[in-house]
Structures are given as C-alpha cells and as structure tokens.
Amino acid sequence: MKQQVAFDLTGKVAIVTGANTGLGQAIAVGLAGAGADIVAMGRTEPRDTAAAVAAAGQRCQFVHADFMARPDSTALIEAATTAFGRMDILVNNAGTIRRAPALEFSERDWDEVLDVNLRAVFLLSQGAARRWHAAQRGGKIINIASMLSFQGGVRVASYTASKSGIAGLTRLLANEWAALGINVNAIAPGYFATHNTDALRQDSTRNREILGRIPAGRWGEPRDLAGAAVFLASSAADYVHGAILPVDGGWLVR
Q: Which one of 159, 177, 192, 231 is the catalytic residue?
C-alpha cells in the first residue's frame, strides 16, 4: 500500500484570514500548492490570491469579515465550513499595526489592534475547536506571531502586546487542546517586505540597522513562509504542539 506523503494536504480545507496580500497570500498559495482548498477570510475580496490558488489547481472561496467590527465568530466559522463542506486548518494571519510613542498612544489605536490581532484569533480558534470537538476529530491551528512576541520594540505598544499575547495564547490552547487532537502552533515571521514594514524600509537608517542584524542579509519575502505553514498544517507536525517557529533569517540568534 502506498504511504501517504506527510506534507500532502490533498482533500483538506484551510481558512486563511487576511489572505488578500503579503504573508497571508503567500501562505494561502503555499497551502494550495500542497493540495488544500482555501477559504480566504477578510475585508477585501482576494482576487489575485484566488487566481494563484486556481493556478495551483485548487478552489478559493471568499468570506467577508471585518475584525475591527467584532463580527460573530461562530457565524464566520459556519460560513467558512459551508463553503466546501469541511474545515481542517485555520491560519490566523490577519493583523494590523499602529505606530506612536507610548506616551501619545491613543485608546482607539490600542483597541483596534487588539481586536484584530488577538481577540479575533482567540474567538476564531475557539469556534473551530468547538466544531472539531463536536465532530470528534482534530484539526490544525496556525497563529502568526512576530519577533515582537519575544522582544519589546518601540512605538508599537498595542502590536507588541498583541503579538506577545499570541505567543501565550498559542501555548495555552496547545495545553488544553492537544489531547483533543487539535494542534495549535505559531509562526513568528522576522522582518518581511510587506505593507506593514513600508515605513521601516523607507527609513534608510532603520533599514540599514535591521539588515545589519539579519544573518541572511536580506528582508524576508512572503513566499519564505509557505514551507513553515505547510509543515504545521500537515500530518508531519502531528506531534508538534505549542511551538513558535521563527522564520526570521536568523534575527533571533544574532
């Protein structure tokens, strides 16, 4: 009998939040390349992502969700599951950032970032886990952490708090749900060339300082995350629980 390839996601359905551009798009396309159909959840219909998923031979369905508006997470999970009749993987990628000195940081910027980056992650994860548990089956949850899950940063108070919270939440949920067959892990991207880092890359001094610390000598490209996501979503990671996998070009070991 032919042994199933450990990294094969054929027949699986993955929900990816914030799949319109950047890291989320790369993760969605990477999962599709391994055989998964994609439910892209977010504010904007991901036309380019859908085209790339289709080019990989997989289906892509859009489910609208504005996480700043605190949508009904149970209804979102229901809609995502209905799209293709099942749900096997949840990638909590959607995120936002606000920059200001802590002395000047506004309550609105605090709340909006925490709503998107942390509140929505917990409630979507809870909704997915409840559904899997009721069906007496497991699933894979992949959260997107950050270098600021380990470090403090500057001028990004709510972002640092949210990503530190993601690290703790990943461990907590892994502790509670591993026995249910639900794997909860996280990927911690380093400094990637995305919209969120435009300001840093355009600041010649900060850009030089950042590149000087990265052993790989370059900013990460979104496609660099695909392999880590496929691994954590696949049966190759069945005994991996509560891990936070840095994909950072060596930033943390410098």
A: 159
Give the E-state strand segments of 26-156 in sequence order. Answer: 37-42, 60-64, 89-92, 139-144
* pLDDT tens-digit series, residues 208-231: 999 999 999 999 999 999 999 999
Band (pLDDT 50/70/90 cuts) for residue 94 is very high
Which residues 6+ apart lie within 8 Å of 116 measured at CB?
67, 68, 94, 95, 96
Domains of the chain: 13-249 (3.40.50.720)
Active site residue 191: no
Residue 155 phi, psi dihedral angles, 5° rounding = 65, 20
Tell me: pLDDT of 1 over 70: no
**pTM score, two decimals?**
0.96
Provide the angle, in degrees to the nearest 10, between the axes of the packed helices 120-134 and 73-84. Answer: 50
For the four alpha carbons of 71, 72, 74 and 80, in that order, the dihedral sign comes to: negative
Give the span between the Cα atoms of 108 and 99, in whole angstroms. Answer: 12
Distance CA 200, CA 39 (A): 31
Strands (E), the chain: 13-17, 37-42, 60-64, 89-92, 139-144, 182-189, 244-247
